[in-house]
Amino acid sequence: MDLAPPRGTRDFFPEDLRLQHWLFGHFREVARLYAFAEYDAPVVESAELYTRKAGEEIVQQLYAFEDKSGRKLALRPEMTPSLARMVLQRGKSLALPIKWFSIPQCWRYERMTRGRRREHYQWNLDIFGVAGVNAEAELLSALTTFFKRVGLGPAEVGIKISNRKILQTALEKLAVPPEHFAQVCILVDKLEKVPPEVVKEEVKALGLDPGLMDRVAELFSFAELDAVAQVVGQDHEGVSELRQLFALAGEYGFDEWLRFDASLVRGLAYYTGTVFEAFDRGASLRALCGGGRYDRLLSTFGGEDIPACGLGLGDAVIVELLKDKGLLPVLPEHLDDVVFAFDPSLRSPAMQVANHLRQQGRSVDLILEDRKLKWAFKHADARGASRLVFLAPDEWAAGKVRVKNLKTGEERDVPLEAL
C-alpha cells in the first residue's frame, strides 16, 4: 500500500498543525484588526456554481462528481462563489456594507509547482456594498499588515495592480465584441503561462483575429500609468480609479508596496475593475495572493448586483516564501506538566493529581505505563513540558508530590492543594 497522501494533498502531523495554527492565527488577528467577521460554507457545492464562463481554467480544474441522487457537485476550488450564494440567500435582510473573511480548504486539479498544490487553505477577505476604491485600499492595507506581521516587507514582496476597464477600452478599440470581453481577458491572462501560439489558436476559435494578442501586448509594454492614460484617455474611469487607489495607498502608508502593471488581468471572468496580485520580488514563486473588484458577480447567479471586491492568499505559497527567507518560527510543543507514578501502587493517586491540575486549566500528560524515572524525565523533555510532577511512596504518604521545574532544575515537595 502506498502510504503517501493523494498527489497534490498533504498530511498534517502535529508539528505541521502547530505551524498552521500560527499562520491562521495571524490571518484571524489581522481580520480582527480590520473588523472582518468570520464565516464558512460547505466544502462540497453545486458544480454549476463554478461553471459561469467557458474558458476559465477553474472549470477544467474542478474535482467534480455526482452524488447518489445524480446531483452534479464539486469540491470548492475557490470561496467567492459560495460567499456570493450566501449573500444572495440573505438578500435585502443583509445590512450593507459587510466585511467578511474565511480560511477555507480549496481543491483544484491543476499542474503543481512549488507552493501550489491541488488542495490548499486560503485566507479570503471580501467587502460587499462599497462602490469606491476605498474598499480596495482597505483590503490592501490588511494584506500588507499581514505581510509585516510575519516579517516580510516591500523589499521582499510587491503588489502589481491594474484595472480591467483599461483592457476593456483597448479591446473595444480593437473591435472585440463585448460578449467576448471576459473570454479574451482569460486568454490574455494565459499569455505568461502557455505558448503564444496556443493562445492565438484559442482567439481564432472565438472568431477573432489572432493578431489581436500582438496589439494587446503593445498596451502591456507600458510600464507607467501615465503612458497608458495617453492611449485610453486621461479621464478614463479605470485610470482615475487607479490614481485614487495610489493616493489612498499613500495615506494608508503602503504605497511603496504597489507597482502598476498593465499586463495584469487575473484569470477569473467575474472581475470588473481593479485587480491586484502580490508577488515574490525574488521571482522564485508564482503569485502569492490575488484579488480585485467583482461588481457583477451576483447577477450571474440570477440576483441583483452589489458592488464587491476581495482577495485570497494561499497557505502553501506563503509558507514557501517564509521558508526561503528564514522567517518560519520554531514552534515546539507546549505542555505544562507530566505526571508520573514512581510505583504502580500510586497509579490511582497519579490520576487524582492529573485531574486536579487539569481542573486548574493546565495541560497534563499522565504516564499510563510502568516506566523508570529516567525515562519519565526524557519523555517530559521531549514533549516540551515545564514541570515533571512525580509521586513517590514516602512523599505521597505525607500528602505531598515532588515537582521538578524543567526550565530551572529546581525541585521541591509540594502539598497537593498547593499545586
Summary tags:
about 425 residues; alpha+beta; BirA Bifunctional Protein, domain 2; Rossmann fold; nine-stranded mixed beta sheet; five-stranded mixed beta sheet; 14 helices; about 20% strand
Quick overview:
With 419 residues, the protein is an alpha+beta fold. 36% of the residues lie in helices and 21% in strands.
Overview of this structure, please?
With 419 residues, this protein is α+β, with helices and mostly antiparallel strands. It folds into two domains: 14-324, Bira Bifunctional Protein, Domain 2 (BirA Bifunctional Protein, domain 2); 335-418, Rossmann fold, CATH 3.40.50.800. 36% of the residues lie in helices and 21% in strands. The chain is built from 14 helices and 17 strands. The protein has helices at 14-33, 57-60, 80-90, 134-149, 164-173, 181-189, 196-205, 212-220, 225-232, 237-252, 315-324, 347-359, 373-382, 393-397; strands spanning 37-38, 44-46, 63-66, 72-75, 98-102, 105-107, 119-128, 157-163, 258-260, 274-280, 289-293, 308-314, 335-341, 364-366, 385-391, 400-405, 411-415. The strands form three sheets. Strands 1, 5, 6, 7, 8, 9, 10, 11 and 12 form a nine-stranded mixed β-sheet that branches. β16 (400-405) and β17 form a beta hairpin. It starts with 13 loop residues before the first helix and ends with a strand. The relative contact order is 0.12. The mean pLDDT is 91.
